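Researcher: Hi, I'm a grad student and pretty new to this. My advisor asked me to get structures for two proteins we've been looking at. I'm not sure of the right format, so I'll just paste the first sequence and hope you can take it from there.
Model: That works fine. Here's the first sequence with its structure tokens right after it:
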Amino acid sequence: MFSPTSLCRRLIPPVLFMLAGVLPVSADSPNRNLLLVIDGLHPGYVTPAWMPNLHALGERGVFGERHTAVYPTYTRPNASSISTGSFPQRHGIVHNTMWVPEAGDGNINVGSAVQLRRLEAALSGPLFTAPTVGELLEEAGLLYLVCGSSGTGTALLQNHKGKGLGVWNARGYFHPPEMEEKAVQALGELPGNDRAEQTPWAFDAYLHHALGDIPPAFTLMWINEPDSAGHAHGVGSPEALEAVGNVDRHIGRILAAHEEHGLTDKINIFVTSDHGFTTNLGGFSVARVLGDAGLDGDGVRVVNNMIFLDDARREDKPAMVEALQRSGVIGAVYPRPSEPGSSIGAIPGTISTELIRWNHERSADILVSPAWTFDVNEFGFAGGTTRGGSSAATHGSDSPYDLHIRLVAAGPDIKRGVRSQVPTGNVDFIPTVLHLLGVERPETMDGRVMRELLAGGPDPEEVPVREFDHRAGVTFADGFRYETEIETLQVGRTHYHRGAWTARQPPANNRE
């Protein structure tokens, strides 16, 4: 048995896993699937210099050049969209922090498994309002594994009922709970709070099962690097690139293990992220904008960049939106639709939460994005937002820098040497995996099968892509004008939010 506390031991030849009592997969096993989510992986990191193993994997298979995160570009909505193949307006996990009055004080940190269980207990219905991949694979009699080093809430959202082989998480979340004893017996003690050590433990958890005698049909592995380094030190910082290199070394380790055990042509690998990254310029505060306009107080609750209103305060919504539209630190403003299903917001000059697929009963009355810029940081990476806080870099906006992420895929069922310009998104992984496993997907699932990336599928250049520009604007009584424009792409019936742009024009007598 090897110890998970030494990085050097992690880089031993894969054959030593055999000595730990792990058996190879039988030759007649069907093709399996691994989805690796690298938290905070900026698409610019995937180069031969910084991530040679991941880049080589894409060269062997497919690069998806127009892949998008789900908006809001936070971890937990994207984790939920990955595990359900649906947008937040269908699955119900609408933010990293949610306000649900039924759950005690109402504020729920969705990054905590404990608080998610509290939320689930308080709800009159299920935690997810869409079917999850764990449930679907359980019904089909196929094994599903979640492993990694994500936060405990993210791990729960990937397999919230512990179906199949359950959850093995380096940060101490196991489901069912008895899985912890099995994991420690197989891999040694948990690595503690060092994220660089959590990464190899998570890869060991995958290899323990992938090389075992009861391998999963589908593994969802979530690695928490380089997200924390990006937040703390900036996009493209030496610290972020060190974390990127650590992840890539372990990607190389699983590729070597697959090759050693004859699995390269038996396992499809998909790699992506949960969001992009932008430099934090500061200044964004929904609460301050409302307070300066005298529109805060009783009946108004601001949670992060969301505004929840009691019935008595809904008449103030137009004034609140106007105050936000006039503020230079604010980007697009999304109220609920003017009528059911409409992309037009209920307040003049706005696009609705329906267009961005966020119109769930748990959603706020108003969702607000920070403003963003094309600014280049000290490390040469473009994209900034006004998001506040002490971090050097952040995400969560509707800028293309936060929405655009990387897709890499390779394996026996995937084309070779393709760079696809067909739009894809995080909602598409589960429909694609279910298709590869022969499991029927629910008609309600928002995502699609990425057939143009699969062997025998259509040529990406022949896939019809529809492009839409949605515009809204308003001119106030004093002549101040606010405009917003949102670009969306559509393949089949699946829509992708590509970014939002806003512009302001002060009254003529105020212009210099």
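Researcher: Oh nice, that was easy. Here's the second one.
Model: And its structure:
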Amino acid sequence: MSATLLLGGYTGDAGAGLGIEAVAQTPDAGLADLGTAVVVDSPSYLVRHPRLPVVYAACEVAGEMWAFAVAENGEADSDPRAAVRLSPLGGPWPAGALVCHVAVDPDGRWLVSSSYGDGIVCLFTLDERGEVVARFEGAAAIDHAAVAAGVPPRQSRAHAALVLPDGRIASTDLGHDLLRVWSVDPSENGFALRLDQELALPTGSGPRLLDLHPSGHIYIITEYSIEIAIVAPIAGSTMYALSGMLPVLPAGEAPAAGDCGAHISIDADSARVHASVRGRNSLHSFGISADGGALHPLAEISSGGDWPRHHLQHDGRLHVANQFSNTVTTFTIGEDGLPGAQIGELASGAPSCVIAL
């Protein structure tokens, strides 16, 4: 049985994409093109509503958040390129300069976006149809390292967020080397953000993407130092602490000029972590200890393209969006849970995100 996926990417001057593309994961190969689901400006990150047929797009260049209703064409079997259509659900909402990530509440009540250009973290309230109805802007980050050194602050660069088990939000600030923890509170117009903690990570590390292990540990890939930061919940508290920094490259190998950390994900078994490195164009897999508090290296393979921006493990395959080579490469997942042979390559304009529909 095939599965439908959506690709986000860059358009216009930023890349060769057209908008959000629909593709099918085939049983015996990689991906098959199903055509452009909607034309929109640089939808660099996508997420699906947990219950409703609605997809949200962080349109990076325009600095906007869009909601799209999903419709499947009844004639998909005879015309597969018309299999999926997306139509706007309401209009665009301002999200901040270079908005690069969006995450959705598992209960479908709100979205949280992160903007690389100006550091803004926004919370968007959703109605019963999944449409955005209100916007709240979180408090600006403080560059604690600059304050301590008595130097001017660096540019705040919010990059990603995830929902914690207690319903709060953890977000990264790549520019200020922070993990920020927020509560989501009811407000007069919907929901609002309240800052609970700012956890300083090593100065200059550049925390980028993050994922949550069932143990409660947060794994963060850093863009500049190319490490995985392991952040642990403090027992008997609502606070978090940094418990370790693990180099992504083998044997502590120093990054080459131009290398930078990209994406990180935990597999379906919660037993392995996959991380990608741009420049080096590699995928790295790590095993996870039983308590979630430690990682150990398992394997490294090529991403199969240039500038692996994002990857998705889905139904026994790992799909990698290689932005600069305009390709999505597909790998098998072996019985050991590790990416194996490359079995497909799909041409796609400047892909930066792959999600399951």
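Researcher: Is there anything I should tell my advisor about the second?
Model: You could mention this: DSSP finds one helix and 29 strands in the chain.
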